[in-house]
């Protein structure tokens, strides 16, 4: 029996939603009748084709805003655009992210600045702009896509880990502040998901190490996940819909692991 999350007509902004996890989450919301504002980088023609296809497939209204997540004024305009288009904002999904892997003493300073800006600081700016709108409505959902790396560390990813730990901490602080406003704030902490970025890494690692791709997946990429399986997009979408709906109204300030057992070990 299909679950009715009663989200039809709601409005969502999803940062970093032109590919990968963000695109899958945008699709899941649109399938529930949520009008969505996409955001992210990529080929403009492909972004527009994907936007039109999602709108046609779901009958939800789908828009796109090209805000750069390193520019606070553009982030503010992204939130304002959703209200201009739809008259309200019910769900904010802070998903935008980038990655760079290197030892701290070799980590380029500009990469640190970019990681913190895109992952952590943009979450602050988008939330800051959305909260007054949600307060006026008496209801809102802020859902931050953190990571297993927001709960545990891995080598050569210290800036990414710092940014994701920051997202989890920000989420908790936000939830406490907003506890009596009708707005919840939660973080979803995925393990490895088979995104286009990870698929490319599998191919590269197989060539570099001279081993089959299935060995790379199990022994390298998924070494930390006891299930030895990638987290599927629909598993993250299920958590998102729970948190976005009234079913998840009592969940706030949580860092919810969807990681194949990674952080249980």
TrEMBL record:
GO molecular function, one term: 3-hydroxybutyrate dehydrogenase activity
Xref: InterPro entries: 3-OHbutyrate_DH, NAD(P)-bd_dom_sf, Sc_DH/Rdtase_CS, SDR, SDR_fam
Example GO biological process: monocarboxylic acid metabolic process
Gene3D superfamilies the record matches: NAD(P)-binding Rossmann-like Domain (3.40.50.720)
Catalytic EC class: oxidoreductase
Pfam families: adh_short
EC number annotated for this UniProt entry: 1.1.1.175
NCBIfam families from the UniProt entry: PHB_DH, PRK12429.1
Family membership noted in the UniProt record: Belongs to the short-chain dehydrogenases/reductases (SDR) family.
Protein's name according to its UniProt entry: D-xylose 1-dehydrogenase
Organism, scientific name: Phenylobacterium parvum
């Amino acid at each position: 029996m299909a679950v009715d999350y009663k989200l039809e007509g709601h409005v969502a902004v999803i940062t970093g939603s032109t590919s990968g996890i963000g695109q899958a989450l945008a699709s899941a919301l649109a399938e529930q009748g949520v009008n969505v504002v996409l955001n992210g980088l990529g080929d403009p023609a492909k972004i527009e084709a994907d936007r039109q296809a999602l709108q046609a497939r779901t009958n939800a209204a789908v828009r796109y805003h090209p805000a750069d997540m390193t520019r606070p004024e553009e982030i503010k305009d992204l939130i304002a655009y959703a209200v201009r288009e739809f008259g309200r904002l019910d769900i904010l999904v802070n998903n935008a992210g980038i990655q760079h892997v290197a030892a701290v003493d070799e980590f380029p300073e500009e990469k640190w600045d970019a990681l913190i800006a895109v992952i952590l600081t943009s979450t602050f700016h988008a939330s800051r702009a959305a909260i007054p709108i949600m307060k006026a409505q008496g209801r809102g959902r802020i859902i931050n896509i953190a990571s297993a790396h927001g709960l545990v560390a891995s080598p050569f990813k210290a800036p990414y880990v710092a940014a994701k730990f920051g997202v989890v901490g920000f989420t908790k602080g936000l939830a406490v502040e907003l506890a009596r406003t009708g707005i919840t704030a939660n973080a979803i902490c995925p393990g490895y998901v088979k995104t286009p970025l990870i698929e490319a890494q599998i191919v590269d690692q197989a060539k570099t190490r001279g081993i089959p791709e299935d060995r790379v997946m199990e022994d390298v990429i998924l070494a930390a996940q006891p299930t030895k399986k990638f987290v599927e997009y629909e598993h993250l979408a299920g958590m998102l819909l729970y948190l976005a709906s009234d079913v998840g109204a009592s969940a706030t300030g949580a860092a919810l692991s969807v990681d194949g057992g990674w952080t249980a070990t």
